[in-house]
Amino acid sequence: MNKIFVTAAALTIAAAAAYSSSARADGFFVDGRFGRSDFDSSGKDTALGINGGYRWGAFGLEGGYIDLGSSDAGAGRSNMGAYSGIDLKGWTAGVNGHFNLNPNWYLSARAGVFHWKADVDLSNNPRNAKFNGNDWYAGVGVGYDFSERFGVGLNYDRYRAGKNGFDFGADTVSVNTEFRF
């Protein structure tokens, strides 16, 4: 269902971009995010992230870091046994879009590679297991530009992470602030 939502939202944003006014001028940006992560294995925590990049018109490149927090609620199973907690964070690199609907309101989209690291509490083992890998992230948002240099948005992002039968990706809903220079 998440894939359908992200795909539909991305197509909507692409269509809106065709009719939107021109995005802000070319330039660098820095984006900070604060929100709530919802892990696939159940459990919620605070998500914090920072991005930076360069945008040419409506489209750009970005790179950043996201800490999705920890999930100690619930339990899951994999081919390695049961687990009771996850701590997930990682680096992102991808593309983004900032599509103006009018001089202040905008739609945004982003997608790319998520290089993640996870500490997993195995129920049948007194030690934590450490995993890392490369998967994907994608998201959509809506926001308001208070000026040519500053905007605030509300975003939904999906971070996919899984290995060896573990599936501990997370969905986030976050507020972001973007500074352009």
UniProtKB/TrEMBL annotation:
Residues 1-25 form the signal peptide. Pfam families: OMP_b-brl. Keywords: Signal. The keyword Iron does not apply. Residues 7-181 form the Outer membrane protein beta-barrel domain. InterPro entries: Beta-barrel_OMP, OMP/PagP_B-barrel. This is Porin family protein. It comes from Tahibacter harae. The lineage of its organism: Bacteria, Pseudomonadati, Pseudomonadota, Gammaproteobacteria, Lysobacterales.
